[in-house]
Predict the 3D structure of the following.
Amino acid sequence: MRIPLNISTELDLTNTPGLPPLAFIDNEPFLVELQGALELPGQPNPDEGLDQYLAEVNVGKLDTTDPSKPVLQVAHHRLEGRLVTLSEPYAILRTTRPESSSAGDAEAGGGEKESPLMDIIGVIKKKMVFAKRPEPIITLSSEADIPES
């Protein structure tokens, strides 16, 4: 089976529901690779499914002010990362099913199924790797800073 690929000239992620969040630096998408396990709060609702649960989870804050040294803050931990060029780039694909005017014929078994349409909407060439052990972030409470009179 052949699936036709259309190449988009611009990275358009506005009309892509269900796309996992990506990290961007200067409109270039990056993969984010974490070493170790990530413990998420609560349990997924079996009625919603795992995809819906993960879509609502906020992992942390990604700081890319220095693009060569990204920093990820997860709760009270700080992770320093590095940029790595992928050996082979990954394509970001958007799959759509063509709307068939003869849907009744296909359901009856008289017609062939149309193959999905795929658009290449981006290319990932680099990834952010967070492989070091996390550093704890310790902050003083405001009560400890108040001098007693």
About this structure: Residues 50-55 form the longest helix (6 residues). DSSP finds three helices and nine strands in the chain. Residues 41 and 134 are 19 Å apart (CA to CA). Helices lie at 50-55, 103-107, 142-145.
